[in-house]
Each structure stands twice: as C-alpha cells, then as structure tokens.
What does this fold into?
Amino acid sequence: MSENFQEILHCTDLVFNPNGLVISLLHKKRWRLALAKINCSRALLSLFSEVLAKHKKIYILPSSATFLNNIDDQPCEDTGIFFVVNQTILSEVVKEKNHQELFKLGGAKGIAASLKTDVNRGIDGALEDIFGRQEEFGTNAYSKPPPKGFFHFVLEAFKDPTIIILLVCAALSLGFGIKENGPKEGWYDGGSIFVAVFLVISVSAISDFRQSRQFDKLSKLSNNIQIEVVRNGRRQQISIYDIVVGDIVCLKIGDQVPADGLFLDGHSLQVDESSMTGESDHVEINQYPNPFLFSGTKVTDGYARMLITSVGMNTTWGEMMSTISEESNEQTPLQARLNKLTSSIGKVGLAVAFLVLLVLLVRFFTGNTTDENGNKEFNGFGKTKVDDVINGVLEIIAAAVTIVVVAIPEGLPLAVTLTLAYSMKRMMADQAMVRRLSACETMGSATTICTDKTGTLTLNQMKVTKFWLGEETVEGKSCVSIAANVLELLHQGVGLNTTGSVYRSCASGFEFYGSPTEKAILSWAVLELNMDIEKVKGNCSVLHVEAFNSEKKRSGISMKKVEDDTVHAHWKGAAEMVLKMCSHYYDLEGNVNSLNDFNRMKFERIIQGMAASSLRCIAFAHTQVLKAGHVNPNGQQKIQDNGLTLLGLIGLKDPCRPGVKTAVEDCQYAGVNVKMITGDNVFTARAIATECGILKMTEEIDDGSVVEGVEFRNYTEEERMEKVDKICVMARSSPSDKLLMVKCLKKKGHVVAVTGDGTNDAPALKEADIGLSMGIQGTEVAKESSDIVILDDNFSSLATVLKWGRCVYNNIQKFIQFQLTVNVAALTINFVAAVSAGEVGESDNGHTGGSSSCYRKTNHGAHGKAACGPNRATYHQCYVEELISTEKPTMELMGKPPVGRTEPLITNVMWRNLLAQALYQITILLTLQFKGESIFGVSEKVKDTLIFNTFVLCQVFNEFNARKLEKKNVFEGVHRNKLFLGIIGITIILQIVMVEFLNKFADTERLNWNQWGFCIGIAAASWPIGWLFKCIPVPEKPIFSYGYWKKLRCI
It folds into this structure.
C-alpha cells in the first residue's frame, strides 16, 4: 500500500480519522490529468481495493472534482463542451442504479462538476449554455407515436353497419336505376345515397379528427408542468420541457420528478415509484444507499435538491412513453345514456321496419301494387321478369331501410361529443382545464361544493401584519426593541426552518421564493428583523428536519451552532398546536417565563383575537437539547417536541378574492351548497366564511354550522349523516376529514365537487364526483387525481365551471327534444302510409311514394341543411353546431335546482313539447299525403314536393322552439347567436335551390308562390302551437313512473 500511496501522493490528499477514511480529491485541470502517468490510475485503483477491504466508511467530500472520471491508459481528448461524461454513462448510472460507476465518477457532486454545474448556484442559464446542453444531451421531450390522421377516422366511419347497408343499397339502386332508365337519369337515386354517405362520413371524420386534435392539445398543456430550478444562484420557475442536463431542481411534497437524476441534498425525501415499478410502497431517497431519482415519480414527503442527469428519451419514463399513445375515446355517462336511448329507439325502428317490410312484400307478391302505367307489378312467378321482381323487392327493402334510417337518432351521442369538445375549449378560456370529459356534464348536476380557503376563496398573498412577543405586540421595525438573544433565535427559527429561499440582487433588492406563507415570513424576517439568511446558515448546520404536513400542521429542525457545538430544536406551525408543546415563553426583554394556566389562557385569547380578524396564526418555539434526537420505531430521527419555549406569534393576512362573495351567492342561488374545509383554526375559518358569504351574520355560533375536523371524525356514523348537511365550515381539518365528509355527502345522494391542492387531497379528489385541483398552488399529485384544473385558483372560475356544466346538460336536452320530434313524426308517417296504402312502395312515377319520398329526400340528399344519412347525419351536425355548440351559459340556468343522480334525461316538459310538435307534423303531413292532390288540385309529384318542403320547413321553424324548453319567448337572445341565424339562412337558401333548381336530382317539382306561402305558413304555425302547449302545466314526477315503463326512467 505504501508504494501505491507514494505514486499518487502528488495527485491526492489522504486524511485519516477514527471514524473511517476521508478522501478529498483536489480539483485538477483536465490538461494536467491528461499528462498524468499511466500507472497513476492503476495505483489508485489498487489503493482503493486495499482501503475498501479495511474500512467500511468512505465519504467523498464536496471538493471532489473530476479526478476519478475515466482516467484511461491514454490521455483524454476534449470532444465537446462537457468532458469525461457522456449521455450513455449518465443514463446507465441512474437506470441501473450503478453504485460502482457512480463512485468512479465522484458521486453526484463529482458528476455536477463534470457537467459544469455549481451545486449551490446551478448552471449559468445563458442561452448558449442551454443550447449547448440540449445539443449534447437532448431536450426534455418524449417521442410519441404519430397522431392518428384524418383518413384513420374516415376508415372508422366506414365500419358503421348502417353505412355498409346504405352503401350496398346505393350500389344496387345505382345498378338497377341505370339499367332501367339509362345512365343519364338512372343514377339519381343511387347517386343521391352515395352523396349522403359521403357527407355523413366526412362530417363524422372531421368531428372525430378535430376532437382528437383538441385532446392532444389539452394533453400537452396539462403536461406542461412548472418546475423550480436553481440557475445562476436564483430559484426560478421554468417549463418541464426546458429542463436540461446539469440543472439543479428543487423538489417538495407533491412535485413530479421532471427527469432522471441524483439526490444532492435534502431531508426526509420519499417518492412514489408506483408509476415505474407498480409497487405502492414509498421509497426513501438519500445520499446512500439510494440517491437515484426517476422521471415521472412523485414526491410524497420531505424536500430535496436533485441533479438532472438524463432528459427526454434518455430517461426510463421516456422509453415507456415512446410506446404509449394517449386515447381520447373516453365515454362519458351522458354518452352512455344516449347510446342506450339510441339503441332502444333503434329497436323500435327495426320492429316497425320489419313490419312494413312484411306488409309491402305481401302486397307486392299478392298483386296489390301497380307500376306507373297502372299495371300489376307482380303477376305470378314465370309471368313476371326476374329483373322486375328484383327491382320491386329492392325498392321495398330500400323503403324499410329508410324507416330504420329515420328511426335511429344516431346524432345523439355525436351531439354530446361535439358540445363537450366546444365546452372544453370555451372553459379553457374561462380558466378551467378539463382533464376528463365526464366532468363537464357531471358538474351541471353538482349539489354541493367543498372548497378550500387559501388561494381559492382568498388571494394567497400573505403578509405579516401582527407580531406578539410574550404578552406584548411589537409594531414597525421590531428588531430594535427585541432582546438580542431572542432576535438570534428568531433568525434561526425563520432562516433554517423553511423551504423558501432569499436572493439578493443589486438591481431589484431582495427576492423571496417558496410558498406564499414562507415568502411572507421570510420577507418579514429580512425586512423587519434584519435577518441575514446567509450569515444564519453559515453559523449553524442543520442536523435533522421534520417537514411540514397537513396532518401535524407544523415543521421542525434540529441544528448545531458552529461556535459552541450546542444543539437546538426549532418548531414552527399552527399557533395553538405549537402552544401545546410549550412550557415557557420569552418576553420582550429576553427573559424566560413559566407558561402557567393563566398565561396559557392569555395566549389562547391572543390567538383567537387574531383569528377573528381573519389572520392566520403562526407560532415559533425553541429549546436547547442535549442530543440531536432519538430514533423512532420507523428508523427516523425524532426532534424534541415538548418542553419548548415560545418565541413569538405572528398573524398573516390573506385578503379575500374580489368577486368571491358574488360567486358564492351565485352558487347558492343555483341551489348548490358551498362548504369551506380549511386547516385554519375555527375563528379564522368563521371570519373568512362570513366575509365570503358562506356563513350568514345571523347564524348562531353553536348551531352546528361550524365544526372542527377532530369533532367531525369523532361523531358516530349516525351523527355524521344527520349533521353533515348543516355543516358549512370545517376548521382544523385534515385530508382524511375532507375524504370522510365527501363519503357522507355521497351517501346522502349529493353530487359532490371538491377542490384540493395538496398531495394528501388526492383521495378526496378521486372520491368526489368532480375533483377540482388548483393550477397555481396545486401539486402534480393533486392535479392528476382531479377531473378539472382551475388554472387561476379562483372560486369565481369554479362558479363558471358550474354554469358550463349546466349549459352542456341543457343543450343536450334541447337537441334530444328536437331530434326525437323528427324521429317520432317520420316513423309514424312512414308506418301509417305503408300499412294503409302501401305508399312506401312504387308510385305512379316509378319512384317511392309521397311520405317515403319526403324522408328519403330529406335524408338522402334533398335537405338543404346538407344530406343527412342514416349514420351521423349532416343534418344533425349542423343543428348541433348551431344550437348546442354555440349556446353559451346564462344566469337563467343558475336559477334552476341541480339535476339529481336519478333524474330522467327526457323530462315531462320535453315530452310535452316534442309530442305537441310531432302530432302537429303528423297530422299535417298525413293530410297532405292522402288529400293533398284534391285539396290543391295538383299532380302527385307536386304533392310529394309539398310534403317534402313542408316537412323541412317545419324542422327549421321547430329549431327556434327547441332553443327554450320552458320559456315561451323562443326568440330571446337569438340575435346574439350569429352562427345560428347564419345556418338557418343557409338552410332556407339550399332548400330553395333543391326545390326550384335541382328537380331531376332531388325528384322535385317547382312550386309557385302560393304553394311556397302555404308551406311557410304551415311550418310557422309551430311557433304559436309551441307557445300554447307551454301554457299546459306538467307534473314534476316523470311520466314513465306512472305506467309500465319504469325501466326507461334511467334514460
């Protein structure tokens, strides 16, 4: 060993102590290392082998540089900006948890030096430095499978069974049409079906494609997490996509680890690696034996700083993400209900179509149908040509398919998709990012909102406004009147027991980083107590840390003073919690006084007085200890937390947000109960709740509207269920209390929305019907557990989300009413015409009869709004765009009570409206079908055109009726919806073109002015009819509950 030692003495310094071997590796220039002797590395490795055999502890001090970094037999060459290390080595060290390679590279601090990262100040942060690191090591972005293109959705649309049936019918119709009437005119029927199918597929594909793109955009936005890094000595927030190798990242509870890296320093750090390993147990991260941090994992406890060693596709998470494609095919509850409704109606349509098919086939084969010349179409087998038989049967099948087409309202599920997509886009503009589609519609049914206080009802802009030392309040520049020993302890308690930081710049003065509470306390200590945080940290060393959590509502440290090696414990937290830990207190002169019962009551009154003024009360306490702490059963150091001396009390003011009282009143006006759940004490909670309008000034103190978390959890199950509705404020609550309240409310049938920002709020957010996390103060764990992210942390935005939820539900109901009116009318008329006279078969002009012709024209190419096929009809899409997607939320919606869980989708009001319009249309169109020729003295073809034109115009006018389900004035606000009016105008223009100019293609006849006036007059009559029927009251109880249709109540 001595020979090896002599050979490398000029390269290393060795210092022995009783606890083990400490190796301090001197900083060497790369060019000097390149000139070192070849056997230096061999001697060094030999020496380490001998040392490791004799000593169990080896510490690599921060002065470690790049001496051990790949000393090869050949001199190293400079191949880039960063010498020695490369991406392959860095990736392998972390991914494989390679301790041996990490040791060779000098540990985390040795790697930091190789990456030109100052472990205290971070990287330089200049653009050249950032670009150089990105070029050398890559960017923090993942390569995902390419998004699905437009033609993928076109192919998906072709897979619809109804589209396939229609294409077959179109091909057969085209073939037989050309055979019978020649290519010049024989293609009309088949061609019109092909055009309809083309338009349907186009609209369906475009809709799905746009939704997919919007989902990708929202997904990218939700993944754009803000990360706190240290660059050039300053903490700053940057996008996760801007992280580079060499960055120093600050982690705290609830953060997502942004990339792979190594633990530098910190306390009590634990991470959830379930996203990587599937194991739910939390993993402790420290300098040894586990300094490895992986991208995508979540911090569950403690805080730390990490060094980034791999980003993007070079991380373990990046490799996983490259094979995963996020899908946006989530089906919301409303879509599921509409699919069920569509299926039920489709079955009815199929039954009617089958019945019509049987009737028409019997009529055809019994010789009861005639061609355009009045001759029987079927004269018996052997007497009728096979082609004529096939043509007749195909026409009958086409008529039956037409009935199925008209019966199935397949636009309903698509209507939900379109309106949800539109609502998501508009809600984003209103500071609400939807992570799960179902939350849009569920929010409209919310009956209770459980909201946080800090940052949601208040601005989260803390400022220290009160300071009590002993039994006296200290005003202004307080450091002058405070005893020196107490002032020193306050500096220690604030400067060391914190997760925030202070940066002093020549230009802008002091800059404070951390949570709003930490920033307020640091600002107070620096500006009013003249605290020099760097001096405090230089005079003391932190031994152990107990991080703040929402259960204990306190944080503590044990520290050692450099000058005398004495060990002290400092605690900071909720005033009444810390007060319970104290047995003495300091007065203004620095004297220590006993905290007897009388004095304790005085302090409790001081705390209550500040809380009643809406102040958050924080207490500081201290004690000198003989030992740094003992180990608890979990193997962690425990800091002394009893027999403390109270240093002082401060009160932080957090003003209520402007407009929050109005937003709370809006929710209450809408029948939604607002409950405030906070960790503050009961007096602060009551004061803030009263200021926000959650509590009324007239409410009694002991009426059960305000409880503490411990009181609520100690209730029996029966007591909780009895009192939960009356509770408006729950103070000093823990996340488990919030979860307990959510469960109780759901058991009582409430639809519950919950706000949360902390990691421990995740269970309550998941349990709630709608979880709402905070975009600014919320942790990544909370955001991932939520359904909607409130981007500005503002309760007013939450009220806006409630409006949008009701708007979505209301617009869907409007569409259902309109669509079912069309379906009921069409199905009834086709069935009656077919059964009574066989008019769905051949008419005297060789085409389908009047009623069927009307709907085939409407659905297969003649409707001016656009051809509406049997699948996702373009007619439906246009209406969805104009009526659903463009109708914005109004205060009128907030005046209605919330929709409960079991409320039917089709209400009695909707049944009244749709049946009134459907019966009117059925009466008019059947009259025209059977008596139209004699009434107007026109040919059958003109009569068919009248039926078609009247039917289309009835739907146009009925669109106005559908705008308002209950209000009689259906024109209110219509002038503000320019898109609605525009599409109505285009519809009418296209209808005129179809009737007057596309006669051969649409099989129509031109109408004179009188006939147009009749069609318009009949259609316009739907307005007064709708007004009259809305005067008829309907029972609140769903009509299906009176008969045998109870099972349809779920619709």
Notes: The longest helix spans residues 795-837.
